[in-house]
Design brief:
It contains 12 helices and 8 strands. The protein is elongated. Helix 9 runs antiparallel to helix 10. Among the domains are: about 150 residues, no CATH class; about 70 residues, no CATH class. It is about 45% helix and about 10% strand. By secondary structure, the chain is of the alpha/beta class.
């Protein structure tokens, strides 16, 4: 990794039920094996259950999102026990207390914690749509638009999982740099670390961020705000195989004067094998990191693309 960070420094908000706490309406939990068995080795969780926090008992009657008079209410299926405002106010309160978080994992489809695709019902109990957002989760995300957020169900997808973890570490890096006091030099250095990462996600963003930093007429505070917003938006976009190949090819150029014909052929074959879907991304990256040890390049050593998070997470082995 390109910056030093301890497990204790990375705080992740998480729905309490996902780490085994029996706080759901039926006294059960909904453990996420990835969060419990893998990610927990690298981060510290701050668990929240908004329904319990606002005073609902365990067990408790189910609640759902109900659309009435163009407004979304969170209440029992018959409309009683409306807790919409309580959940919103608790969300606003926690959002202000958790600016230090570097990520958040929400419980999917929950009327309070769902990040997306929450079912909305009519007052008569008919299913209306599945495009709601949990009342608590909405407050957290709106107050912290840069915060990397995901749901437990989506984290079963290896591409989404890798993307989420990469965003956590990038955002934590930004938090550390910001806390130390931003300067133009620090901002430029930070960007240099993430140039190839952004290239692998979105070429348009790659160019725009470079142009932003080159604009000497924008005050530092405004430039930093625009920069981190642009970076985190770019990182939300899934890196494609095509963009990875383009990025790997750019990096390959740094070794053109050092490698033998046989070594160049081997690296080309690894990149092409990845392009064709015959090899995982880790294959060409491993070879590039090997050559980087043999032929050190300070600029490449600082690239988050080559080591965006702890290798032990093994997130680039599946694609």
């Amino acid at each position: 990794m390109i910056f030093s960070v301890n497990k204790e420094e990375i705080k992740i908000g998480i729905s309490s039920c996902l780490i085994g706490q029996k706080v759901r309406f039926d006294s059960s939990n909904k453990p996420s094996r990835f969060c419990i068995d893998e990610l927990s080795d690298h981060v510290e969780y701050e668990p929240y259950c908004p329904e319990v926090a606002i005073g609902l008992p365990i067990p408790r009657p189910t609640i759902r999102q109900i659309k009435k008079d163009d407004l979304i209410h969170v209440a029992r299926p018959d409309g009683s026990g409306d807790v919409t405002e309580e959940l919103k106010q608790y969300g606003k309160s926690i959002a202000e207390q958790t600016k230090h978080l570097s990520g958040y994992v929400f419980c999917a489809k929950s009327p309070s914690c769902g990040m997306e695709r929450v079912k909305i019902y009519t007052p008569e109990g008919n299913s209306l749509t599945s495009d709601g957002v949990g009342a608590y989760a909405k407050e957290i995300m709106e107050a912290n638009p840069l915060l990397p957020c995901e749901e437990n169900g989506r984290l079963n997808d290896m591409h989404i999982r890798e993307n989420f973890v990469a965003r956590i570490y990038a955002y934590k890096h930004w938090q550390k740099v910001s806390e130390s006091g931003l300067t133009i030099h620090k901002l430029t250095t930070f960007h240099s670390h993430y140039k190839y990462t952004v290239m692998s996600h979105n070429l348009v963003a790659y160019k725009k961020l470079g142009q932003l930093l080159a604009d000497v007429d924008i005050p530092l505070a405004e430039k930093a705000e625009q920069y981190i917003s642009g970076l985190m938006d770019a990182l939300k976009i899934q890196a494609t195989r095509k963009n990875h190949v383009n990025t790997l090819t750019h990096i390959q150029g740094y070794f053109s004067k050092h490698l033998t014909a046989e070594q160049r052929k081997e690296l080309c074959e690894q990149i092409d094998g990845y392009r064709l879907g015959l090899l995982p991304l880790i294959a060409p990256l491993t070879l590039i990191n090997h050559y980087l040890m043999q032929y050190p390049k300070e600029y490449l050593k600082g690239q988050s693309y080559l080591s965006p998070y702890p290798d032990s997470l093994r997130l680039r082995y599946a694609y």
